[in-house]
Design a protein that fits this description.
The complex is a heterotrimer of chains A (169), B (403) and C (177). Chain A is built from three helices and nine strands; from the N terminus they run αββαββββββαβ. Chain A is α/β, with parallel strands linked by helices and 169 residues long. In chain A, strands 1-2-5-4-3 form a five-stranded mixed β-sheet, with helices on one face. In chain A, strands 6-7 form a two-stranded antiparallel ribbon. A two-stranded parallel sheet of chain A has the order 8-9. Chain B folds into two domains: 3-53, no CATH class; 61-402, Cytochrome-c3 Hydrogenase, chain B. The chains are: A alpha/beta (169), B mainly alpha (403), C alpha/beta (177). Chains in contact: A-B, A-C, B-C.
């Protein structure tokens, strides 16, 4: 089967660069994400390799990489499924003592664990590093960071830190 | 937003009645746990739920690489995957070469496959040794770690360092074969073939090991595909998938080798398949040393940028020091992804560049991170004494899962 | 001093015993024997902190064999007297190492192995790593990335020389709890 024809039937926004092994589907509408994922699963893509986020100044792009273990033609392809979401404005809060805290709120994306169960731990890591909340994930908790880093989203580009004193007891 | 999401104490009561079951923490300072904490809910002696608590060795390699130059990511990536340094090095360099558009010459491709196969043998011996310690046998641990040393000596003869070699650079490799390497390699391979017979007598055909590992931790073929596990664990469950056959890189399309698969998917099959893969690697090393072509070891685009002193060094001693222009390397804008089959499974890299001197997004997934579902889905229903057996048979290495 | 029934009084037995003990404790023979005994039975705790643990495991293997110096990795912290901090310690792991260090009985020694434990190594300036001397009193440093197993043997010999130099302090060491 011709891969380009099959992918064009599913969506119109398809990018293929053979030499760099770059197969990509860009999804414009958030509500169609789960339908596109289900039709990819019927084609033969049956597991998730990685889930990540890319941070731009005004939006966050969430990328799922999928591949296939059972269909012979698709075993050598890494397909990327990407969605872009706008970031809300930072919120300024102030203390009774006059200190100002800047809080960066998270963004929301539907979760694909119901389609591909192999993405459970990958989505937890994307949540704690970028601040992406996956709706419908059965067990969304912090995975690797200790409680010193709650709500700091370290992998965003505007994360700065200053090591004052670490409390070890 | 749900504030309960962050509270660590809520962990104790998630979905399970907190008073009926005992919660046991097998912590980091335990001889059978490695650098991680495993929380186990027990009903008498039967395991009801397992929750792996990882992140004790999270050294932030992605965050650091996005703030340093492109070539400085090579040592960082190597020290995260310590028993398997050549494959991590190779995966990163393949991705950067796709962005730059360079192809290395044929002799360099064969040399890359040679060090990759030597490293696969040392990585499998490390796994066999650690599995022996978890089952309580220190004889196999001493044998396996002692048998790694001749192969590490071969790497030191070729590159000058024991484990973290940094041998592969964009465009080729750094050193050429010295005199006497082929004879020394043949001696080491014959020694390993004799030793494999001893391993089969003491370890593989041992009735105690067979009683502890047969029908323990079974994972069927459909579940293995749905959970997305990788490496020899996947092939022991019956799925025929190897990145060296389906997305070939280096010189693997010219070498003749087989990929073994097993039927049952229990711990005994995972033990057998590593011994079979060592035999295949020995066969591959002999073919490479016989068929290796002559020629240069770096690509022409790199060779033309060396200054005359370095070119003279290259002609006389057959080595390339790190040229200084690699510090200022700026690949053009775009994205690239690459996959490599390491000893424990498949490494995946995804790098995005905007033409700047630092990478814009550096993302990689290691094989141990993708093998985590073995704890949450496979260990449920077994006795507590079977947990070290399952842990040791999947060859999980915590520093590479946390990156 | 003989009594009518044949018994001999020697005075207050408790006092004499205490004086004899103090005399023995200050003799050179006793100090040398005790420091020789501690030198060749330094047992480290089996706690692997990071990637230098692979060279620590190789140091106990048949080729480099540190067990001939008495170096036997042991499971629990209550019967050990050495702790080897190998490689990078993250904030989560440093809390565990400190708690294990406080459970070991006195006298005890610390080796910081690798470039990451000395000054940050290749992972410097990261938000999650911390240097060994900020939370433990270190006795010997081993540079390298990763150091060869022979370098770890050299560090054990340095600790042995330190014990021989400070053998006056070995006796009379009290535990706090």
């Amino acid at each position: 089967m011709n891969i380009k024809d099959e992918l064009s039937k599913i969506s119109t926004n398809v990018v293929i660069e053979e030499k760099k092994a770059n197969y990509k589907i860009v999804v414009d509408d958030l509500s169609k994400l789960i339908d596109i994922a289900n039709s990819l699963k019927n084609l033969g893509f049956d597991h998730v390799v990685s889930v990540t986020g890319i941070d731009y100044p005004d939006k966050i792009e969430v990328v799922w990489h999928v591949s296939s273990y059972s269909v012979d033609n698709l075993k050598g392809i890494n397909l990327a499924l990407s969605v872009a979401v706008k970031k809300p404005e930072p919120i300024k809060q102030s203390d009774p003592q006059g200190n100002i805290y800047i809080k960066r709120p998270p963004v929301t994306v539907p979760s694909l664990v119901s389609v591909w169960p192999s993405g459970i731990f990958n989505e937890r890591e994307a949540f704690e590093m970028f601040g992406i909340i996956f709706e419908g994930h059965p067990d969304l908790r912090y995975l690797m960071l200790p409680e010193d880093f709650y709500e700091t989203w370290p992998m965003r580009k505007d994360f700065t830190y200053q090591r004052a004193k670490v409390f070890i007891e | 937003m749900n504030e309960k999401v962050y509270n660590i104490d809520d962990l104790q009561n998630i979905n399970v009645d907190g008073e009926k079951y005992i919660i046991l923490q097998i912590g980091p300072s335990h001889p059978g746990s490695g650098h991680m904490r495993i929380k186990v809910w027990l009903d008498g002696d039967i395991i009801v739920k397992v929750d792996p608590d990882i992140g004790f060795v999270h050294r932030t390699s992605e965050w650091l690489s996005e703030r340093r130059e492109w070539i400085k990511a090579v040592p960082i990536v190597e020290r995260i995957m310590l028993p398997d340094t050549v494959h991590a090095n190779l995966a990163y360099v393949l991705t950067v070469e796709k962005l730059l558009g360079i192809e290395p010459p044929p002799r360099a491709q064969y040399l890359r496959s040679l060090v990759a196969e030597i490293n696969r043998i040392t990585s499998h011996l490390y796994g066999i040794g650690i599995f022996g310690i978890f089952l309580g046998s220190s004889t196999v641990y001493m044998w396996a770690f002692g048998d790694r040393e001749p192969f590490i000596d071969l790497m030191e003869m070729l590159t000058g360092a024991r484990i973290t070699t940094s041998y592969i650079i964009p465009g080729g490799v750094r050193w050429d074969l010295p005199n006497g390497f082929k004879e020394r390699a043949e001696t080491v391979l014959q020694y390993m073939e004799r030793r494999l017979k001893d391993y089969e007598d003491i370890w593989v055909k041992n009735p105690v090991v067979q009683a502890r590992t047969i029908n323990v931790g079974t994972l069927k073929k459909e579940d293995a595909i749905a959970l997305g596990v990788v490496g020899p664990n996947l092939r022991a469950s019956g799925v025929y998938y190897d990145t060296r056959k389906h997305q070939p890189y280096a010189a693997y399309s010219n070498i003749d080798f087989e990929v073994p698969t097993m039927k049952n998917g229990d711990s005994y099959d995972r033990l057998l398949i590593r011994v079979e893969e060592i035999k295949q690697s020995i066969r591959m090393i002999r073919q490479i040393l016989k068929d290796i072509p002559e020629g240069k070891i770096v690509a022409d685009q790199i060779y033309n940028q060396l200054n005359p002193v370095m070119k003279k060094n290259y002609e006389e001693k057959k080595r390339v020091m790190f040229p200084a222009f690699m510090i200022h390397m700026r690949p053009p804008a775009g994205e690239a992804a690459a996959k490599v089959e390491a000893g424990r499974g498949e490494i995946f890299f995804y790098i995005k560049s905007t033409g700047d001197k630092y990478p814009y997004r550096f993302r990689w997934v290691t094989p141990s991170f993708r093998n985590l579902p073995y704890f949450t889905h496979v260990a449920v229903g077994h006795r507590l004494a079977d947990l070290p057996t399952i842990y040791g048979s999947i060859d999980y290495f915590p520093p590479e899962a946390d990156r | 001093m003989a009594d009518a029934e044949g018994l001999i009084y020697l005075g207050n037995l408790d006092d004499v015993a205490k004086k004899a003990l103090e005399f023995l404790n200050q003799s050179e023979f006793m100090k040398k024997t005790l420091s020789w005994g501690v030198d060749f039975s330094l047992w480290p705790v089996h706690l692997m902190t990071s990637c230098c643990g692979a060279e620590f495991a190789a140091a106990a293997s048949p080729r480099f064999d540190l067990e001939r110096l008495g170096f036997l990795p042991f499971g629990g912290p209550r019967q050990t007297n050495l702790i080897v901090v190998e490689g990078t310690t993250t904030i989560k792991m440093a809390r565990v190492v400190k708690r294990v260090y406080e459970q070991m009985p006195n006298p005890k020694w610390v080796i910081a192995m690798g470039a990451c434990a000395m000054d940050g190594g290749i992972f410097f300036n990261s938000y999650n790593t911390i240097v060994a001397r900020e939370y433990l009193p270190v006795d010997a440093y081993v540079p390298g990335c990763p150091p060869r197993p022979e370098a770890l043997a050299r560090a054990v010999l340095l600790i042995q020389e330190k014990i021989k130099r400070e053998k006056d302090k070995l006796l009379g060491v009290k535990n706090e709890h």
